């Protein structure tokens, strides 16, 4: 009995990867068990898996805070691993080595393997941690695996039906999934003497209000653009960011009778993306996926000229991919783009960026590459629990986590924020839904 544990950090983002990986590993006689933020707390006491796949070193530290008793079966495989603002991959560094690299050394020393999305990330290891090269393997962007993508069928008869325009929101600070007040957000996020905030690195003249300013401008622009559209010609959809409170969007649409369809919160992003004729968004890493599947997305970042004076140096607003995304300077110019058929031409420089960030040459089989790595590592690994007790450990884990997940599911109806992308309950029905996605 060989077992891999896979952590689903955000339901709509990560579940399709988990589903396809489960099917791929099953072909090899390896069982995959799903976990989430709620169930991962039991990993420290029930070390039943041959391998544990976590999205960052921070998750490893949260589950195993005692650095004197660290397991040797941890794989770090980021759930978000694209984007480069200033050229030195600081944000990726934190995923692999923690916010404080020196203090985190016991944990990144204990990691069994670092699974990387792209060749730029391998360069990070070569430059900063060559001693870990033997632990590294580039597998590709998992959500660009051909089994995770839904074939996009372009609307070739735009005159016969409405044009589908998809807006992607990114308002995790003004619309937090846990619904904290703006007062509390500002209090937690403001700079203070003696406290390091990696968020504000290379931005000495910025503070928490700059975060709020850019998001409020972007939110207003989405509403203004929709208000300016001819809704007899266009059908408007919105995809909330996983760390937003989706209920606030539904409340806004219903109370103001907006002609806007909110996407199903647990639908994989690639499936939603394939249904749209146009994609509009503030600066976001979703542009990597959009460009990879043949969209020529539109970014709203240049419509309000003063917005750029509030942008943090390390934010997605300075992502290298934005040089190759359409960025109209007025709402009228944006609407003009919607009245033309989308033209997609992948710039050679974009191809280089996608190769570096997503390993686009092997990404279509990224989950096969991931499964290959898991199988090889299991064969090298000393089982974390004696084989004769393995089934008992698994049974105890499943009974415990599934039972408590139903309690969490009920609790979500009464707590602030409710069930969101990262606070979903991993009930049996939810697990079966995830299984079905790979079909």
Brief write-up:
The chain has 439 residues and is an alpha/beta fold. It contains 15 helices and eleven strands.
Arithmetic mean of pLDDT = 87
Radius of gyration: 22 Å
Q: With helices defined by DSSP (H or I, 4 residues minimum), what is the helix count? A: 15
Q: Biggest β-sheet, characterized? A: 6 strands, parallel
**How are the strands ordered across the major sheet?**
2-1-3-4-5-6
- Percent helix, as a range, is 25-40%
- Helix/strand-derived category reads alpha/beta
Draw up the topology in text.
Elements: E1 2-7, H1 11-26, E2 30-35, E3 51-54, H2 57-63, E4 74-76, H3 90-97, H4 105-110, E5 113-116, H5 119-128, E6 136-138, E7 163-168, H6 182-189, H7 208-228, E8 234-239, H8 246-256, E9 261-262, H9 269-275, E10 278-281, H10 286-292, E11 298-299, H11 331-338, H12 348-358, H13 366-380, H14 387-411, H15 428-437
Parallel strand pairs: 1-2, 1-3, 3-4, 4-5, 5-6, 7-8, 7-10, 8-9, 10-11
């Amino acid at each position: 009995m060989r077992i891999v544990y896979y952590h689903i950090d955000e339901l709509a983002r990560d579940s399709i990867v988990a589903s396809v990986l489960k099917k791929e590993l099953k072909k090899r006689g390896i069982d995959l068990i799903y976990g989430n933020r709620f169930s991962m707390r039991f990993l420290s006491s029930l070390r039943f898996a041959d391998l544990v796949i976590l999205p960052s070193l921070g998750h490893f530290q949260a589950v195993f805070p005692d650095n004197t008793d660290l397991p040797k079966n941890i794989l770090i495989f980021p759930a978000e691993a694209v984007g480069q603002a200033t050229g030195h991959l600081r944000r990726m560094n934190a995923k692999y080595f923690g916010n404080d690299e020196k203090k985190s050394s016991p944990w990144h020393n204990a990691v069994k393997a670092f699974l990387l999305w792209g060749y730029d990330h391998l360069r990070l290891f070569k430059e900063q941690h060559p001693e870990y090269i033997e632990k590294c393997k580039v597998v590709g962007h998992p959500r660009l695996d051909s089994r995770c993508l839904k074939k996009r069928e372009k609307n070739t008869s735009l005159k016969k039906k409405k044009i589908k325009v998809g807006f992607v929101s990114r308002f995790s600070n003004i619309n937090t999934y846990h619904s904290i007040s703006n007062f509390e957000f500002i209090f937690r996020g403001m700079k203070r003497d003696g406290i390091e905030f990696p968020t504000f690195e290379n931005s000495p003249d910025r503070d928490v209000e700059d975060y709020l300013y850019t998001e409020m401008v972007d939110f207003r622009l989405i509403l203004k653009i929709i208000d300016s559209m001819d809704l007899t010609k266009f059908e408007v959809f919105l995809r909330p960011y996983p760390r937003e409170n989706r209920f606030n969007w539904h409340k806004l649409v219903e109370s103001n009778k907006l002609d806007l369809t909110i996407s199903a919160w647990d639908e994989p992003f690639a499936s939603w993306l394939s249904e749209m004729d146009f994609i509009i968004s503030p600066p976001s890493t979703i542009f990597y996926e959009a460009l990879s599947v043949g969209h020529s997305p539109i970014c709203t970042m240049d419509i309000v000229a003063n917005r750029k004076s509030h942008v943090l140096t390390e934010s997605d607003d300075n992502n290298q991919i934005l040089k190759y995304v359409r960025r109209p300077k007025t709402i009228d110019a944006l609407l003009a783009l919607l009245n033309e058929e989308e033209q997609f031409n992948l710039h050679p420089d974009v191809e280089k960026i996608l190769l570096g960030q997503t390993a686009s040459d092997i990404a279509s089989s990224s989950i096969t590459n991931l499964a290959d790595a898991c199988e090889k590592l299991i064969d090298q690994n000393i089982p974390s629990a004696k084989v004769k007790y393995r089934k008992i450990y698994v049974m105890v884990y499943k009974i415990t986590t599934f039972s408590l997940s139903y309690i969490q599911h009920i609790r979500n109806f009464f707590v602030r924020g409710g069930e969101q992308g990262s606070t979903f309950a991993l009930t049996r029905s939810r697990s079966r839904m995830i299984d079905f996605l790979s079909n």
